[in-house]
Amino acid sequence: MNRLFNMRINILTLLLAMMMPWYPLYVYSQRERILMDEGWLFALGSASSPEKDFGCGTEDFNYLTKANSVHNKGPYSKDFDDSEWEKVDLPHDWAVHLPYDRNAIHSHGYKMLGYKYPENSVGWYRKIINIPETDLGRHLYLQFDGIFRDSKIWVNGFYLGGEPSGYATQTYDISEYLNYGGENLITVRVDASMAEGWFYEGAGIYRHVWLHKMSDLHVAPFGTFISSRLNSTYDSAVLNIETNIENSGTKAVSFKLRHILFDREGKEVGSCDGNGENVYPKTSQTVCSQLTVDNPKLWSTDNPYLYNVMTEVFVDDKKVDTYNTTIGIREVKFDANKGFFLNGKVVKLKGVNMHQDHAGVGAAIPDALQIFRLKRLKEFGCNAYRSSHNPMTPELLDACDSLGILVIEENRLTGINNEHVRLLKRMIERDRNHPSIILWSVGNEEWGMEWSEQGTRVIASMREYCHRFDPSRMMTVASSGGPSVLVPADVAGYNYILQNPIDKYRGQYPLRCGIGTEEISGCGTRGVYFDDFKNGHMASLNLKPNGKDSVLNCIERGWKFYCERPWLGGMFYWVGFDFRGEPNPIGYPQTGTHKGIFDYCGFPKDEAWYLKSWWTDEPTLHIFPHWNLGGHEGDSIKVWVYSNCDEVELTVNNKKLGRKKMPENGHLSWDAIYYPGTVKAIGFKNGKRQLTRMIRTSGKPESIVLTANKDTLFANGQDVAVIDVELKDKKNNFVPTACPLLKFTVEGPIRILGVGNGDPAYKDGDSPKDRGARHYQVKSFNGLAQILLQSDTQKGTATLTVEGEGLAGTSYTIECK
Predict the structure, then answer these.
(1) pLDDT tens digits for 279-338?
(2) What is residue 206's three-state secondary structure?
(3) What is the pTM of this model?
(4) Whether 361 and 473 share a structural domain
(5) Which string of b and e fits 231-255 if b means at least 16 CB within 10 Å?
(6) pLDDT digits (tens, 9 = 90+) for 643-675
(7) In the prediction, which pLDDT does 543 show?
(8) What is the pLDDT of residue 3?
(9) What CATH number is attached to the domain comprising 228?
(10) DSSP-assigned letters across all residues of 165-195
(11) DSSP assignment, residue 399?
């Protein structure tokens, strides 16, 4: 019936349009959201020459002079020849495929991108889409979730505008520019010549693109704001629902709203209505409603329970739009004396900072890989994530909502001019319904204002903007040591206890709430125990004195500091995963950081086991260094153990070195003499043996062990399986120093998305440029490597085969359904 009704309306629309094209007509149509990631064409342009940049800017009547000028010949013209362009799917980061150069930008990992390399720093994208005639009379807009950087957008040659920031979601109304019943050209120019951050940021359309179709009267993009207020016993909640209704048509319309609350199982558990006044063309109107929920199921880190609010828009009793909002009902509070509260209970923030970057894909991380990364963090006890130092991918926030990970979301820049406030507002309005977000951060280590009165004034103003855009949350700012910016913040963000006199501030500002927004992890290169700067590798700082102001095991020092002070809400280590860029302190040939608790692929370093010991209740016992140490026989060496057992007994080469009591939030170490052989640790709980772990000196690698995070993929062209590769000797011992070349072959409906090995100095290529490549290779690093496999749109059985010189090949089967 609805289908027949819509067909009649569309036919009537066409007839009236033919007879009286000026006649304003309202079309009743439901909302569609279409993913636009597949089937783009890509080519590099030029940042130095308009002629080399496909003539963009050389026309007498360019896109800034005339709307869709008939004289235009550039990529935004339908007649432009793109037959030689590369076929790509989104998300896409062209910087991944660029070579390295020691003369390139240090902080971005020496990729040949930026002002020194204009021929690599501008990219063009084109895509043809078909819009049916039946869409005439509807409102259509494009949504780009992230383009790095300085983008310009055209549809059918009409210039829509652009966005200088690489982290802002962009929406463009394209309704009037479309060719209904035919082909339509989307063109995007991206200029990554300038950086926004001091870390690897990639280049290109590295997040999703969406096409939205709806009625002229509709819920505006990100047009709902739903906050909850719980009573003192947490058995009742009031949902405050603000809905922004937009009229993109050409006549005034009155409307009604209905909000329906569904639980996780899809059962309706409440509803409320709202009435709108006459909303005039090209304007919007906000309607406020309330809904009471009895005995709500609360969202928490242990039980991240999610509801859905379906908002229906009616005109003349006919439903014209439906908009869904996922929410979680919870109470978040910071207290100056007791720290952070979630639903009335104290929760210590056990967090990490993260950049959007992974081996094999760079900044263009598929949603399934984002989930893998979050699950790896949570497996080791992490319950909080700080988005350093920019707004997050929307789907990453969805994953935090569903996994129960608390979030500090951070604005890219600190300031109160229109540009800065515009971006802050866009971030908050897009993301304020996510229950995972507990704080808005307005900036990080702004040295130019940390010690000045201007800093105090700027942060005070940004605080008020945050409260205006979202009265339900507090805000923070992260300081590297300067006190001025912390004075007006709702919650002070301390970067590093060696840079901020936190106890002194406690005496000066007893009513101040505080958290550790950054704290040093002390990690080095995975599996490296002696500095090897020549090859870009560094031993962990946790194993040696690292400066006059430091101590051994600084990861332990940081957690103890925040754990012992209940008035601090918790802390975030720098950093969760290694990332490309900021290759300190070595510089080239190092191209990425090695300060991560996990390496670039997500393989845990020794320090990850310290956190698992004290951030989880799971019995943990970890011995290090590995026993293919590379040192000299007879050398004196300390053997360390991270564990949450009460006591640990250590034996080295059958010699008992003693049984020791584990200090709370601490570690144990024994002095030993190094000889190849076996190290054995026994952990005791309540006097009884609980765990036994052994590490052995291994021989040469002879076999390959594959471990996948999943063996079934959705055949949607988007899903990803992460396959970890581990090298073993003939006795099945891990070989932690092996680095042979591994060769991958795939068959069936999957593709090689990318590879990695966790080496911060690796430069041999992350992924095949040919999307259809069936073979690729990577050199393993310290016994490990990783391959990312992405599903096709075809169903069937896929096979990965891994081989290497001197190694017995092995295969892994994945079902695509």
Answers:
(1) 999 999 999 999 999 999 999 999 999 999 999 999 999 999 999 999 999 999 999 999
(2) coil
(3) 0.94
(4) yes
(5) eeeeeebebebebbbbbbbeeebeb
(6) 999 999 999 999 999 999 999 999 999 999 999
(7) 86
(8) 39
(9) 2.60.40.10
(10) -SS--EEEE-GGG--TTEEEEEEEEEE-SS-
(11) H
pLDDT for res 321? 96
Mean pLDDT, 10 residues at a time, over the chain (817 residues)? 38 34 44 96 96 90 83 89 96 96 94 96 98 96 98 96 96 97 98 95 98 97 97 97 97 96 97 93 97 97 98 95 98 98 98 97 97 98 97 97 98 94 97 98 96 96 98 98 97 96 96 97 95 95 74 89 98 97 95 96 98 98 92 90 98 97 97 95 97 96 97 96 97 94 97 96 89 93 97 96 94 97
Using CA atoms in the order 448, 454, 457, 460, what is the torsion angle rounded to 10 degrees?
A: 10
Q: Which of 696, 719, 743 is the last residue of a domain?
A: 696
The residues, ordered by sequence, that sit 6+ positions from 503 with a Cβ below 8 Å of its Cβ are none
The H or E element spanning position 350 is strand 349-354
Residue 115 · residue 100 · CB < 8 Å:
no
For residues 20 and 100, state if they share a domain.
Answer: no
d(CA 70, CA 724): 54
Identify whether residues 221 and 181 lie together within a single domain.
Answer: no
Q: Are residues 399 and 382 in the same domain?
A: yes
Beta-ladder partners of 683: 648, 691
3-state SS class at 589 = coil
Sign of the dihedral defined by the CA atoms of residues 440, 445, 446, 450, in that order? positive
Q: How many CB atoms lie within 10 A of CB 108?
A: 24
For residues 739 and 783, what is the distance between their CA atoms, to the nearest angstrom?
A: 6
182-to-27, 130, 132, 179, 185 alpha-carbon distances in Å: 20, 6, 7, 6, 10
Alpha helices in 549-656 (DSSP H): 554-563, 606-615
What lies within 8 Å, CB to CB, of 176 at 6+ separation is none
What lies within 8 Å, CB to CB, of 147 at 6+ separation is 163, 166, 170, 188, 190, 204, 205, 206, 207
Residue 666: how many CB atoms within 10 A of its CB?
16
**The domain containing residue 581 runs over which residues?**
332-621
End residue of a domain, out of 641, 664, 696: 696
Q: Using CA atoms, how far apart are residues 590 and 425, in angstroms rounded to an integer?
A: 37
- DSSP helix/strand/coil, 526: coil
547 in the same domain as 410: yes
Question: Tokens 């440029």 — which residue?
Answer: 769
Distance, CA of 685 to CA of 602 (rounded, Å): 30
Q: Identify the pLDDT of residue 5.
A: 33
pLDDT for the residue numbered 27: 44
Query: In terms of domains, do 518 and 651 share one?
Result: no
First to last CA, the chain: 33
Are 538 and 441 in a shared domain?
yes
Please name the helix (run of DSSP H) or strand (run of DSSP E) that holds residue 398, with its range, or none: helix 394-403
Q: Return the pLDDT at 135.
A: 96
CATH number for the domain including 150?
Answer: 2.60.120.260
What's the domain count of the chain? 6
Listed in sequence order, the residues at least 6 apart from 418 whose beta carbon sits closer than 8 Å to its beta carbon are none
Opening angle at CA 724, ends 718 and 730, nearest 5: 155
Domain shared by 557 and 435, yes or no = yes
